[in-house]
Specification:
The protein is an alpha/beta fold. It has 14 helices and ten strands. The protein has an eight-stranded parallel β-barrel with strand order 1-2-3-6-7-8-9-10, surrounded by six helices. Helix 2 links the parallel strand 2 and strand 3. The longest helix has 20 residues.
Length: 369
């Protein structure tokens, strides 16, 4: 059977279908107000991508507790005060013909102490970050706050949410057998360490409307994770049908695994060969050309998530549709270029910390008097 086209629609078990197979990756951009309310810069950045043709437009990681903030200028979804801005955003994304989704996040031990004003939290005490272990009651409260955030997203008009279980943040910390050293029902076996993820997903599904979409982002390696365990969990979650889509953050879709026992084939292939039932499988990691995106579908993914290329081209999907061989512009690019692509000053400043992404400013040439 031939691989689907990037521009074939993609249906889900719940909610609307994507008009194509390209999803905007959730991207840190530092543009929200200090209290987590949506800013005009963040609104403009995201809605321009919806207008540029993405089948689903996802927000950056939005923190579900004030103390779960991971970076300055982060979008919040921990208070009803955030609903007004989120409603404006969801309406505009959907008006552009894109599915609207919020990524739900808690940084755990990666919450900077000077940002949140107290020690961060973690499944277990962590000497390096100064994080303290969550009590059992706090674990239960954390689950409830993820669910409450999903309900706010629903109230704001979003089509669904993605639960952030990747990149070393709090749910990823629970999944790690080295970071999570708990001896209660939240630690020990993989089943126990994954319990918090399953409970969040199940309760969102139970308490949001029937057609509300639920996705999950997972890292397959790094951050104290074991590839074999992540593969097992991914297979179980897809078989159980707890989610509509699984988003694998691979860093590079062409790379081999880090663990010696899994080398010899692509990291992606350890997930595309799993039975997935009605769950859709997506991959992210250095997809900078139309050809690479199309190859991911040939290699078994249902959809792709576009990050860097979406920063460089608000209309990456439209460009690939016009020219399947389209390649993102090479970096570094100028600050003026990024401003033209809809990035505000805070986001441009953040991108300037990425090596080789933003060109150094030319010093002003003194003019003769």
């Amino acid at each position: 059977m031939s691989a689907p086209s990037l521009f074939d629609p993609l249906s889900f078990a719940h909610g609307p279908a994507m008009k194509n197979r390209m999803m905007l990756a959730p991207l840190t951009n530092l543009q929200s107000h200090p209290d987590g309310r949506l800013s005009d810069d963040e609104f403009n950045w995201l809605t321009l991508r919806a207008k540029g043709g993405f089948g689903l437009t996802m927000t950056c990681a939005a923190h579900v507790q004030r103390l779960g903030q991971g970076f300055p200028g982060q979008l919040g979804i921990w208070s009803d005060d955030h609903i007004e801005g989120l409603t404006r955003l969801a309406s505009a994304i959907k008006a552009a013909g894109s599915i609207a989704a919020v990524q739900l996040h808690h940084a755990g031990m990666r919450s900077p102490k000077d940002l949140i004003g107290e020690a961060p939290v973690c499944p277990s005490d962590d000497e390096e970050t100064g994080a303290r272990a969550l009590t059992e009651a706090e674990v239960e409260a954390l689950i409830e706050d993820f669910v409450a955030a999903a309900l706010r997203a629903e109230a704001a008009g979003f089509d669904g949410v993605e639960v952030h279980g990747a990149h070393g943040y709090v749910l990823c910390q629970f999944l790690s057998p080295t970071i999570n050293r708990r001896t209660d029902r939240w630690g020990g076996s993989l089943e126990n360490r994954a319990r918090i993820v399953r409970e969040i997903l199940s309760k969102i599904r139970e308490r949001c409307r029937p057609d509300f979409q639920v996705g999950l982002r997972v890292s397959p390696e790094r951050f104290g994770l074991e590839l074999g365990e992540v593969r097992q969990l991914a297979g179980e979650l897809m078989a159980e049908g707890r989610i509509d889509y699984l988003d694998m953050s691979l860093w590079n879709v062409a790379k081999e695994p880090e663990e010696e026992a899994f080398k010899g084939r692509s990291l992606m292939s350890w997930f595309t060969d799993l039975p997935r039932g009605r769950v859709r499988l997506g991959v992210a990691g250095k997809i900078m050309t139309g050809a690479t995106a199309a190859q991911c579908l040939k290699d078994g993914a249902d959809y792709v998530l576009i990050g860097r290329a979406a920063i460089l081209h608000h209309d990456f999907p439209a460009r690939v549709q016009a020219d399947p061989a389209f390649e993102a512009v090479s970096t570094p690019v100028s600050r003026a270029y990024l401003a033209k692509e809809g990035l505000g000053p805070a986001f441009i400043g953040y991108m300037s910390t990425w090596p080789g992404f933003v060109a150094a400013e030319e010093p002003a040439v003194p003019q003769p008097s």
